[in-house]
Amino acid sequence: MTPNELLAEASTLTAALAGIDPSDPAAAEARLAGLDTRAFEAALRAAHAEGWATPKEAGGVRFGRVAKADPTLHGFSLDVVDMNGAAPGSHVHPRGELDLCLVLEGHPRFDGRAPGWVVYPPNSRHIPTVTGGRMLIAYFLPGGEIQFDR
Known about the structure:
This protein is α+β, with helices and mostly antiparallel strands. It contains three helices and nine strands; from the N terminus they run αααβββββββββ. Strand 1 (about 55-60) and strand 2 (about 60-65) form a beta hairpin.
């Protein structure tokens, strides 16, 4: 799996994400539930297994920014995280956040939510937390905007 191959799959997915309004998470998640994400998921898992999608580590969380916000990703950035437990700090999503959460081990839940899509509205804040196992999470950020608390 090459970065260009992963980004090609991500671009197909972000074309659909571009029409989603994160200000109503329940409606957004209902729309996202119908997307076929299998090709992107396979590409993401391969990129993670090869190590280049999550090259950094902090507090037991592996992560990486695969792509900055870009027109080829319809204005989204793509961050990838492998986690079990809590992230080392909280952050705010100025324009919202659309997360695709995949099982790596066990029966994980992301912020109490089952695997699949989790949407946060603009200006929401959280400490990302995985319980019950391990997840691989693709974070799609409109405009690449995120504010980490210090």
